[in-house]
């Protein structure tokens, strides 16, 4: 929401200004609020405590999600103070897994609007619609077309929950000022018949537009953003593979943009692997990865790992040869005729196989990475096979939300007899197995995208490059202590995610300055500058 200076009654209804019961007596006088609030004056701490009590009264996480969204549209400072006070507790509410359920039920739970909806029927008028957003300086847009929301598929306009949730984390996790962010949904229709048949559905009631008209709409959108907000970075989120890959290819060298599912996920996977590599004692170049799923998330991770392996001495071809994909049609290998261009670098010579377990026994990967959106594919046989060929198998079920995870943390630890190096896309509780407690890490792009946002903000970077994700991955991984590795954690603990993200952001920013991508002058101490720029959820002094 835009920062404003509303007065009187309007001040109570402007989330960027509203303090509710925390307006001081003096402010109430000056702003004309006397009589509009009960006489008591709360501190922010007391307001936070009240929110916790109210959350405790609710029966389930979807209700808590709705409560928090209402809070966001009522009192922004309090919303972020609550989130940032306990990120480990609140991330699963405003983000995966609860946000997935909220997107599925979007039309039924809809209350008030946040962000901008651009229907393809407004073709030619995108700029005009965007101008209705009150804020004139927007630095981050997270945009979806709702076609592949987490692993839940086409949710049409209901996908909006994702840009809203991601941007809340830009702020809560890396301190990006909320007034600079804007969630957007491009409504190009939906192919989800259940939605089309639902009288409560709020999006366009038509099949998805494809091809030239779709591309032209995306182009108009990018142009409009450039024209209105020249310093803005566009993050593409939860598009179907074929659109995600094409859009990124088309715009990554033209404007400041990235795709979180391809590049952010790749960054966080590489960070987890660098952490995991420390546990295995083997060099990165000695590892070999097998992906369950061969979409753009898989190829994005495989490519970033390959680049990182190449930086450690392998040729890029040797590096790619250590990354294998497996999908619904079996092992991706060079004789397959159904492959898209973006999959071909990872289609190596090998006999066809439809058995993931056989492929594990044959290729002996050191890690398996699940980006299939199909739950339970890492079954007991798979994890036992990985444990037979590895002292410490890397098991990363990355599909979201929890209901789509390739296995649970408990399954991974149990079936590997406590040997698994584990991280999952959505959170799992700690697991006790044979008297030892393991803390499963959340290998979610939340360790990357907020930090990337903060770095881009602090530098006004012209572009977002591939190397920036390698820098980010290394910065995340280097913060994990040996004691944390010993408990199974390969990412920094979520309780300290703000601090970790600010450090990661500083490392990325340093790279941006070093490579002449910045549009601002280099500060003497980059990390101090970033920490100073970061949003804090406090009321400005009266
Ligand atoms: O949103 C998340 O939790 C991670 C992500 O980008 C996805 O699964 O699409
Ligand atoms: Mg996503």
Automatic annotation (TrEMBL):
Coiled coil: none
InterPro entries associated with the record: Aminoacid_DH-like_N_sf, Malic_N_dom, Malic_N_dom_sf, Malic_NAD-bd, Malic_OxRdtase, NAD(P)-bd_dom_sf
UniProt domain Malic enzyme N-terminal: residue ranges: 72-252
Record-annotated Malic enzyme NAD-binding domain positions: 262-513
Keyword Oxidoreductase included in the entry's annotation: yes
Domain of life per record: Bacteria
Record keywords: Metal-binding, Oxidoreductase
Presence of the UniProt keyword Lipid biosynthesis in the record: no
PANTHER family documented for this protein: MALIC ENZYME-RELATED (PTHR23406)
Family the entry assigns: Belongs to the malic enzymes family.
Designated name of the protein: NAD-dependent malic enzyme
Lineage, uppermost ranks: Bacteria, Pseudomonadati, Pseudomonadota, Betaproteobacteria, Burkholderiales
């Amino acid at each position: 929401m835009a920062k404003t200076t509303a007065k009187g009654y309007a001040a109570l209804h402007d989330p960027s200004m509203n303090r509710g019961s925390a307006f001081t007596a003096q402010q109430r006088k000056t702003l004309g609020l006397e009589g509009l609030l009960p006489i008591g004056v709360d501190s922010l701490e007391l307001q936070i405590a009240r929110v916790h009590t109210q959350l405790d009264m609710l029966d389930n996480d979807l209700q808590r999600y709705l409560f928090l969204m209402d809070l966001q549209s009522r009192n922004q400072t309090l919303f972020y103070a609550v989130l940032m006070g306990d990120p480990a507790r609140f991330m699963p509410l405003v983000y995966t897994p609860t946000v997935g359920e909220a997107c599925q039920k979007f039309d039924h739970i809809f209350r008030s609007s946040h962000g901008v909806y651009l229907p393809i029927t407004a073709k030619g008028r995108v700029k005009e619609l965007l101008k209705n957003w009150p804020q004139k300086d927007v630095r981050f847009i997270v945009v979806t077309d709702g076609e592949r929301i987490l692993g839940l598929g086409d949710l049409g306009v209901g996908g909006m929950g994702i840009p809203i949730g991601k941007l809340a984390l830009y702020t809560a996790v890396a301190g990006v000022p909320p007034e600079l962010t804007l969630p957007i949904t491009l409504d190009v229709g939906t192919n989800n018949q259940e939605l089309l048949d639902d009288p409560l559905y709020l999006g366009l009631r038509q099949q998805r537009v494809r091809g030239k008209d779709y591309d032209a709409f995306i182009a108009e959108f990018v142009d409009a953003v450039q024209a209105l907000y020249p310093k803005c970075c566009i993050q593409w989120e939860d598009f179907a593979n074929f659109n995600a890959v094409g859009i990124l290819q088309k715009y990554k060298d033209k404007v400041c943009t990235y795709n979180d599912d391809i590049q952010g996920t790749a960054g966080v996977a590489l960070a987890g692997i660098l952490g995991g590599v420390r546990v295995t004692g083997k060099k990165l170049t000695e590892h070999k990865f097998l992906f369950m799923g061969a979409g753009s998330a898989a190829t994005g991770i495989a490519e970033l790992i390959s680049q990182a392996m190449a930086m450690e001495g392998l040729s890029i071809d040797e590096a790619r040869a250590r990354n294998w994909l497996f999908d619904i049609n079996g092992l991706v290998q060079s004789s397959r005729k159904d492959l898209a261009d973006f999959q071909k670098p990872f289609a190596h010579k090998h006999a066809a196989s439809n058995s993931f377990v056989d492929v594990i026994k044959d290729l002996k990967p050191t890690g398996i990475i699940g980006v299939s959106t199909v739950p339970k594919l890492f079954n007991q046989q798979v994890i036992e096979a990985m444990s037979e060929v590895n002292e410490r198998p890397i098991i990363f079920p990355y599909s979201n939300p929890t209901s789509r995870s390739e296995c649970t943390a408990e399954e991974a630890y149990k079936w590997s007899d406590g040997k698994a190096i584990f991280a999952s896309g959505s959170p799992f509780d700690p697991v006790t197995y044979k008297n030892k407690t393991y803390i499963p890490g959340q290998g979610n792009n939340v360790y990357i995208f907020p930090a990337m946002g903060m770095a881009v903000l602090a530098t006004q970077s012209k572009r977002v490059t591939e190397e920036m994700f390698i820098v980010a991955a290394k910065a995340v991984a280097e913060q994990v202590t040996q004691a944390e590795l010993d408990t199974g954690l390969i990412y920094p603990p979520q309780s300290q995610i703000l601090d970790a993200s600010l450090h990661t952001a500083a490392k990325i920013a340093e790279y941006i300055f070093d490579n002449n991508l910045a549009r601002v002058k280099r500060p003497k101490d980059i990390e101090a500058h970033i920490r100073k720029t970061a949003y804090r959820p406090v009321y400005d002094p009266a």
